[in-house]
Amino acid sequence: MEPCQSQPHIEVISWFCAIHWAYDPSESNCAICKSPLAEPCPDCADSLLLACPPVTGACSHKFHVHCIEHWLVSGELCPLCATAWVVEEK
Fold first, then answer.
1. DSSP secondary-structure letter at 87?
2. Is residue 86 part of a domain?
3. Which of 16, 21, 59, 60 gives a 20 to 30 Å CA spacing to 78?
């Protein structure tokens, strides 16, 4: 059996490259809203806002800034480890 002699000619006219990244692979989702930290929180996504940075506490847990702000209205503790929520100094 002989291989096919005619090869299709394929020409790339244009291409689009995309990349997805996370802040920390071990903690890539917000524990409050369950959305990826690399994407806006649900409130920002509904409002078509793109800026919703993650914030890290002194306990090293990360959340969307708006998610933890809403959480802290009802208390002062990290939702994961129940230690006092303090934003990590950079």
1. B
2. no
3. 21
Question: What does the DSSP assignment read for 20-35?
Answer: ---S-GGG-B-TTT-S
14 belongs to a structural domain: no
With tokens 């919703």, the residue in question is 52
Question: Mean pLDDT for each consecutive 10-residue tract of the chain (90 residues)?
Answer: 71 78 65 91 82 91 94 95 91
Pair of tokens at residue 88: 């990590």
pTM of the model: 0.66
Split into its structural domains, the chain has a count of 1
Domain CATH code at residue 33: 3.30.40.10
Which structure tokens are listed for 29? 């989702």
Tell me the C-alpha distance between 29 and 64, whole Å: 9
> Do residues 67 and 36 lie in contact, with contact meaning Cβ atoms separated by under 8 Å?
no
Asked if the structure places residue 51 within a domain, the reply is yes
